[in-house]
Write a structure and sequence with these properties.
Involved in the formation of 2-(5''-phosphoribosyl)-3'-dephosphocoenzyme-A, the prosthetic group of the acyl-carrier protein of the malonate decarboxylase. Its EC number is 2.4.2.52. The structure is a single chain. The protein is mostly helical and about 290 residues long. The chain contains 13 helices and no strands. α1 runs antiparallel to α5, α2 packs across α4 and α5 packs parallel to α13. The radius of gyration is 19 Å and the shape is globular. The structure holds ligand LTSJ6FE6 and adenine. The site of adenine (ADE) has 10 residues, from α1 and α13.
């Protein structure tokens, strides 16, 4: 057999595409990190409501994850089982924790963006575009049943998120995934896409998307730190911000900055909403 005919002489096209899908996830996490002001969250400006991490902790975490997201996309392209994705996710979490000295920077993001990369890899390997609708279908068809079973199994788990979800009857990360991320696809990504279509600058559009996430998500980080009252407060102020014209309104940046100060004073940190922003930035890059 000639060299040209040998199977696997060069990586298949979808392997390069998996690399691009995964790289877009790392870039999207950087998009999220670099947005400021961002109420209660870590940015290059400050550490928000956190005393154990700053932007350099997040950068170390990002660097440690650079191979994980292409791996998720390749697994998706190869038709991998949910168990294989979970194994990759746990290995990525372990690398993140080694890189950050045990601090949880991106556990939720590994889960959400990992699943999205896997779904996009699956689509690309079938010659399909990772549009929002196609991604939701691929998630449901590929791993929907396993995600539902996982959400039921983990209802008794002892993670911060599971405890908060149980105590307050919230839709945590597992349930969002089991329903193919309704908040991301129905609220956060549309807010980002619409803001860009209206001509807002990328940073303004990301601020709008972050507030859309804060308004709609049952963010278990908030409930863990500040109870149901803290979560509902954040959802209310986010809805008010959007109703007052959002990121395009005069004085929006000052209002976001004032909320940042208030959240820091109350130790509020919408980490789940930050993950939704990153996921929307990834979607904007790969699946318009
Ligand atoms: C499915 C898991 C993500 C586990 O989820 P679970 O709900 O059991 O609990 P947590 O371990 O608490 O993690 C959930 C993280 O998901 C983000 N999040 C919160 N609410 C939502 C929501 N409604 N929808 C989607 N995502 C949500 C959030 O992640 C971000 O915040 C973290 C940093 O916050 P911080 O304030 O520092 O929090 P902590 O250090 O935890 O506590 P304190 O400082 O307050 O004391 C950071 O992770 C952000 O990304 C939640 O934290 C998952 O662990 C799992 O099953 N993994 C398996 C492997 C895997 O990834 N598989 C992937 C493919 S199958
Ligand atoms: N920028 C950020 N600050 C704090 N927690 C987060 N979780 C995800 N992104 C975050």
């Amino acid at each position: 057999m000639s060299a040209l005919r040998q199977p696997c002489a060069s990586p298949p096209l979808w392997s390069e595409q998996a690399q691009a899908l995964g790289r877009a996830a790392t870039v999207a996490l950087h998009d999220e990190l670099s947005l400021a002001p961002k109420p209660g969250l870590v940015s290059f400006a400050d550490s928000g409501s956190h005393t154990d991490m700053d932007a350099s902790t997040f950068l170390r975490s990002l660097f440690s994850l650079r191979r994980a997201f292409p791996a998720f996309a390749r697994l998706g392209a190869a038709g991998a089982s949910f168990a294989a994705l979970e194994q990759e996710g746990l290995a990525a979490e372990a690398r993140m924790l080694r890189a950050t000295g045990g601090i949880n920077t991106h556990r939720g993001a590994i889960f959400t963006l990992g699943l999205l990369c896997a779904a996009a890899g699956r689509l690309r390997s079938n010659g399909q575009e990772p549009t929002p609708a196609a991604l939701r279908d691929a998630l449901r068809q590929g791993w929907g049943e396993a995600l539902v079973a996982r959400a039921q199994r983990s209802a008794g788990a002892m993670s911060n998120g599971a405890i908060a979800a149980r105590r307050h009857g919230l839709r945590g990360a597992g349930l969002e995934a089991a329903e193919a991320f309704p908040v991301l696809f129905e609220a956060v990504h549309p807010a980002l896409a619409d803001a860009l279509a209206r001509g807002l600058r990328p940073e303004q559009a990301r601020l709008e998307a972050l507030f859309a996430a804060m308004a709609a998500l049952d963010d278990t980080n908030l409930a863990h730190r500040a109870g149901l009252e803290g979560l509902r407060h954040v959802q209310r102020v986010a809805r008010d911000f959007l109703a007052a014209g959002g990121a395009a309104a005069p004085g929006a940046l000052e209002r976001a900055q004032a909320l940042h100060r208030e959240f820091v004073a109350r130790r509020l940190s919408p980490g789940g909403a930050a993950d939704m922003l990153a996921a929307a930035c990834w979607l904007q890059r790969v699946g318009r």
